[in-house]
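Deliverable D2.4 — example input (structure tokens):
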């Protein structure tokens, strides 16, 4: 379901802008209808009150949590089943973050990613994206949403932008705490700047060598690293948020001195932070993670060369941590629904 369609139904049921905002707020916060100071009966028109049970039932049916996988680092990986039986992954991160999926599968085909191995199955609708946030909020507060789960958000722009606009308004997520993560698509750079809610941008760089990038990310738009950084820098200056460059560290592939020199050449003086993420092994690939010492050495060298660098480990690595691994494993196991507690029970 698209959020547009939900808004149309609310409008047809007699909702004005304030009524619509309240319904969207309750849904995206996973709150019951009677929360807040004013009772629904005194706030909503009777035609809307009559229509709400069916609308709420449709929203509740969008997605449910199929399984929960706690990580040793405080994260929780959620396998979320959509109404048609497809599954996506969301990850509750420590300190109020949530990573959501924007597609079932992905067409970019990154060589080191499990999701990329199966191709694109379907788009995740804007309401299904918000449903992932609502499900996560039934478990913990969520103050930051990153679009770094399954899928390339730039390949599902209309749905992702609709979800971002709702989350940045009725969903009460600060705009710089909405992070659109992309391999770099000129359409996304352009559209995001025009939006009412402008998210922060994470850009998957992974190498400074154009030819290697074409091999690692075979179906990413054919922009050179220089062109990508130039586009991203324009976005950073326009929004006032630094770009978060993502770099999956692969032993013997992109962890050499030549790449360090390339990064210094490309990113010196840019408004950005570089997140280096040591590769998390997946079955069926020949890639390996560099040693911990090598990862630390790279980060230290870049910091000495005045590139703001953070060494990060992807959340919940001890529980099939790579994007797409839970889903792949679940395809081989029978369904088990996780009972969802009502918001009222948690209060
Ligand atoms: S890393 Fe991201 S863009 Fe690349 S295949 Fe995986 S989900 Fe798609």
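Example output (designed residues):
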């Amino acid at each position: 379901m698209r959020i547009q369609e939900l808004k149309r139904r609310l409008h047809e049921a007699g909702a004005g802008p304030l009524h619509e905002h309240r319904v969207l707020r309750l849904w995206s916060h996973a709150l019951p209808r009677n929360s807040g100071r004013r009772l629904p009966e005194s706030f909503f028109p009777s035609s809307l009150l009559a229509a709400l049970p069916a609308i709420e039932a449709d929203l509740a049916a969008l997605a449910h949590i199929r399984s929960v996988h706690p990580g040793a680092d405080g994260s929780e990986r959620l396998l979320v089943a959509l109404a048609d039986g497809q599954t996506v992954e969301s990850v509750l991160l420590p300190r109020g973050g949530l990573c959501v999926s924007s597609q079932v599968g992905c067409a970019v085909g990154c060589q080191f990613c499990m999701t990329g191995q199966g191709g694109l199955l379907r788009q995740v609708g804007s309401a299904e994206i918000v449903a992932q946030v609502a499900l996560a909020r039934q478990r913990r507060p969520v103050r930051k949403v990153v679009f770094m789960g399954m899928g390339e958000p730039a390949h599902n722009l209309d749905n992702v932008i609709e979800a971002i606009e709702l989350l940045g308004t009725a969903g009460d997520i600060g705009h710089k705490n909405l992070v659109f993560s992309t391999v770099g698509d000129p359409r996304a750079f352009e559209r995001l700047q025009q939006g009412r809610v402008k998210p922060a941008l994470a850009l998957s760089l992974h190498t400074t060598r154009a030819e290697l990038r074409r091999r690692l990310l075979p179906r990413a738009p054919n922009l050179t690293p220089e062109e990508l950084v130039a586009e991203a820098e324009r976005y950073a200056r326009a929004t006032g948020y630094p770009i978060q460059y993502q770099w999956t560290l692969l032993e013997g592939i992109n962890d050499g001195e030549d790449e360090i020199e390339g990064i210094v050449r490309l990113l010196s003086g840019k408004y950005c932070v570089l997140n280096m993420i040591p590769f998390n092994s997946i079955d069926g690939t020949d890639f390996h993670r560099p040693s911990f010492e090598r990862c630390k050495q790279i980060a230290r060298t870049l910091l000495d060369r005045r590139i703001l660098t953070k060494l990060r480990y992807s959340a919940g690595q001890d529980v099939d941590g790579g994007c797409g691994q839970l889903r792949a494993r679940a395809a081989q196991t029978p369904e088990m629904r996780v009972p969802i507690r009502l918001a009222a029970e948690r209060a």
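The two ends are 29 Å apart (CA to CA).
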